[in-house]
Amino acid sequence: MFSDPVKNIAQFGIADGMKVVDIGAGSGFYSIEAAKKVGPRGMIYAVDIQQDLLERLKKSAALVGIHNIEGVWGNAEKIGGTKLRESIADRAILSNVLFQIEPQDRDNLALELKRIIRPGGKLMVIDWQGGTPLAPKTLVPDMVAEAIFQKAGFVLEKNFAAGDHHYGIIFSRP
Length: 174
Hints:
CATH architecture: 3-Layer(aba) Sandwich
Order of helices and strands: HEHEHEEHEHEE
Number of domains: 1
CATH topology: Rossmann fold
Shape: globular
Mean pLDDT: 95
Structural class: alpha/beta
Largest sheet: 7 strands, mixed
């Protein structure tokens, strides 16, 4: 099975009224599932560098009656690039994004996530594992991902199986 947003979000402790940032939201599978969890009092900030994907996500969400997703056209590889205010998020999701980030930009990505996640908040990283013919050519092994985010000051909480081809890691921000 590929990465399952419903199962993976269940690992993450998203609750009613929370603010969640989905970095690299793409087609919005995680944004839509998170929006259901936070309810109408919560808010999802779906950040993507591709504006057309954000417009498509907004339409897909509206079709299923979800109206608490705000599309944010931004670049999480730059500090301040998400255009979100500091400590806005209770939770942040980074799914199938890390493998696309150039090695020299990974530290900035981690620092931008630290900037937007409030102290006590959490980050969920889901990315491709090796050993599968479906995986992209460029991979960021889970040990490397752990090091990137720990260097930025995140604390490793747990690793979990995020699907047959993906790993999952949850970090907290002290």
